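Listing S7. Sequence submitted for prediction.
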Amino acid sequence: MPRVTLNALDDTVTARWRRGLAGTRGLEKSHWITKMAYYEAVDRLLAAGGAEPLTWRTIVDSVHPRGNSSTFYGVTGPRARHPLLRAFSASDCVESLYIALYYQRVSPVDQLIDEAKVWAYWPYREVWLDECRRRNVLTREGALSAATSALVAWAKDRPALASTLGFAPPMCAVEDLMLMCQGQLSARAAVARLTEVVRESRNPPAPALEPPVPGRRVPVRLTA
């Protein structure tokens, strides 16, 4: 039965990026604190609803204690410091490069939303990894089941954030799925499958993620 190395999930592109920015518990770095202020603003604005799409100005105006255009473009956009997308693009792993290509966004606001999804989902990811360690669940099926449950829980708790950008899943969830499937699932297929999980979280039960069968092409239902 295929097994998953949990240590590998602690050393993903996203995990290294987050560790480098966030620092240690209780001693967070200033740029990470600034990033979190913008993630929280995005999450808060989406949860509040409204007919108007998010703009850099509405986000800046919502940042606590104070936002401005300089810090906004330091967090997201082409001149951003340490964006997650750049970490994927700089990786020497082909799978990471495909994730970077899939998540290329024209709008700095959309890029910020992608990072906000990772920030909001991360605590759920930590819970399912800790649970796997406690139970010594190392089979691929067990890890996939735990990861699916975590993604569904996140999507239910933050429905507005989860559903924006066409229900796009957090980049780290895509990275985890591809790692667990050990090269048997493309970035496009992984995004499509997790998008469906997020979309269907509104209509439980959510579909289970089944590991691909070696030698068989994985059918992908393209989503908007």
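Caption to Listing S7: primary sequence and predicted structure tokens for the chain studied. The two ends are 34 Å apart (CA to CA). The chain has a mean pLDDT of 86.
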